[in-house]
């Protein structure tokens, strides 16, 4: 779980990192739609 300071930061991370490889493993980033 990762928390971002802003919605824009989160969207940038998803756009750049979703479905990429990290240490030989495919990673997926998804937005948590739940509100706390």
TrEMBL record:
Stored SUPFAM superfamilies: RNA-binding domain, RBD
Keyword terms of this UniProt record: RNA-binding
GO MF terms, alphabetically ordered: RNA binding
Pfam families listed in its UniProt record: RRM_1 (PF00076)
Domain RRM per the UniProt entry, residue ranges: 2-28
Protein name (database record): RRM domain-containing protein
Organism: Bracon brevicornis
